[in-house]
Design brief:
The chain is α+β, with helices and mostly antiparallel strands. The protein is built from one helix and four strands. Helix content is about 40%, strand content about 20%. The N and C termini lie far apart (about 70 Å). It binds zinc ion (ZN).
């Protein structure tokens, strides 16, 4: 194989790798931006600990004392 063909192939592979990385990166960023809403904030009624959990749960267990708490909305 001629060295210039080899070089051209090498450049093409590098370019493709860059494009793939760029696409993967932008997809990850988009998923991050439009992903599930912010985590729900919970405040423990027993020990006062404030923590977060998935937005689709209504009750979450306190990591400090284990009490189940309802979601707490700062904006309310
Ligand atoms: Zn607690």
């Amino acid at each position: 194989m001629r060295p210039d063909v080899l070089l051209a192939g090498y450049m093409t592979v590098m370019l493709l790798a860059l494009v793939v990385l760029w696409i993967a990166n932008s997809m990850r960023r988009r998923r991050f931006l439009s992903g599930p809403a912010e985590d729900r904030v919970f405040r423990c009624l027993k020990c006062g600990s404030v923590y977060t959990d998935d937005p689709d749960v209504d009750l979450s267990r306190c990591p400090q004392c284990g009490k189940m708490n309802e979601s707490f909305d700062f904006r309310a």
